Amino acid sequence: MLAHAGWVGRLTHDGGLADALIRKDLSHPSISEADRAMLRYVEKLTLRPGTVEREDVDALRVAGFSDAGIGDIAAHVALFSFMNRIVDGLGGQLEGDMAERARRFSLPLHAGTYE
After folding, report:
1. Which of 33, 52, 75, 110 has the highest count of CB atoms within 10 angstroms of its CB?
2. DSSP 8-state assignment for residue 63
3. Which residues make Cβ contacts (< 8 Å) with residue 99, sequence separation at least 6?
4. Residue 110 has what pLDDT?
């Protein structure tokens, strides 16, 4: 999340938005209601995939996402989860100051993998 939020900040020139995403603060004014709904779904699908229900998908439709858009969101979450597990499974290392930045934001690091 840290690296991706950093890219959001650079692309939008909104460091506050990047900080809000890292801290999981969905109250930032740059985050639309549709994006809030999407981020809640993404978090649930990432952290608790077995708890996703039809109501979660329906909430995305209510927020304005098409079925194709919802499929894209789910596919991207699955792809990132897949790739992260490969990197973790092979003992991937964070580069540069990423470990220190993760600690600063109290983001979890896998013991032994990134230390």
Report:
1. 52
2. T
3. 109, 114, 115
4. 58
